[in-house]
Write a structure and sequence with these properties.
49% of the residues lie in helices and 14% in strands. By secondary structure, the protein is of the alpha+beta class.
Length: 287
């Protein structure tokens, strides 16, 4: 990858395995709006970023070199060799090979843990458009305005003034009580999200599962999308069906057995495999 900066715009060239539509539309994040074909607006880490992809490269703006190096380089996981990841997980696996060929530009975003935690609590039994709207509502009610009706996701302290009534006005529904439990446990220091980065995956998961409304699938999403634990394999009903269809001859299979299969086949890159499979099967199996 090469990049240049001009007029508060970063232009990326020779960028491997990067398709902004596939990255944002695969269900791993919710703070984005599609402006046009291959053109999006993202809100993350208190910043608004426009990203536009064409045959001439990828444009990030407004963005200077310092912001690119300190925020977006890591956010888009640009240090990782995705060709190696795909080569590893497709070895002797025709299904995964087709999945990677179907959406070769997917990357795992490195999101801010607090926002990721609340976002995936909200995601339970919810459709993506509604998840996005609830997060937008909460940001508008409790967060600070960045500019032009775009709001930062509220900090733990900012959400401590929230209550069931306020969160329900944001259309969070039954998840309001789970959000408040997360606010209490993180805000009191009982769960230190920043310090959790220093622990092994099982310990982080154990801590996350102590928050009401965080189950195995939600905790795995948080581990994958904000703690960089790429070995986890988030499994909901949809992923379970996908695995049963492709790897268990349509037989009903327990989640522990599915995790065992994912670990055996994909190892430390199981999380990447899950994203390729999800995007592939969501489109192919629906058809």
């Amino acid at each position: 990858m090469k990049y240049t900066e001009k007029n508060n715009t970063i232009i990326l060239k020779e960028l491997d395995s990067f398709n902004i539509e596939q990255i944002l539309e695969c269900g791993q994040c919710f703070r984005f709006e599609k402006i046009d074909n291959m053109k999006y607006e993202i809100i993350a880490y208190g910043k608004i970023l426009n990203i536009e992809q064409s045959s001439n490269g990828v444009k990030l703006y407004p963005c200077n070199e310092n912001e690119f190096k300190n925020i977006w380089y890591n956010y888009f996981d640009l240090e990782r060799d995705y060709s190696h990841v795909k080569e590893t997980i497709t070895k002797n696996d025709d299904v995964m090979k087709k999945a990677c060929e179907f959406a070769p530009g997917i990357r795992i975003l490195n999101q801010e843990p607090w926002e990721c935690l609340i976002s995936f609590i909200i995601s339970q039994n919810n459709r993506i458009p509604m998840i996005k709207q609830v997060i937008k509502n909460i940001s508008k009610m409790y967060g600070n305005e960045i500019e032009n009706e775009r709001y930062m996701f509220p900090t733990v302290d900012e959400l401590r003034v929230s209550d069931i009534s306020g969160l329900e006005k944001c259309k969070s529904g039954f998840r309001a009580k789970y959000i408040l439990d997360a606010v209490e446990k993180v805000g009191s220091g009982k769960i230190d999200l920043e310090n959790l980065k220093n622990f092994d995956t099982n310990k982080i998961k154990e801590e996350l599962l102590d928050i009401k409304g965080v189950g195995p699938k939600v905790s795995d999403c948080i581990l994958l999308f904000s703690f960089g634990r790429c070995e986890v394999f988030p499994t909901d009903v949809w992923i379970k069906r996908i695995m049963e269809h492709f790897y268990f001859n349509e037989e009903t299979t327990s989640i522990p057995k599915i995790h065992e299969k994912a670990k055996m086949k994909f190892g430390k890159y199981a999380g990447f495999a899950q994203q390729y499979l999800f995007h592939y099967a969501r489109t192919i199996l629906k058809k």
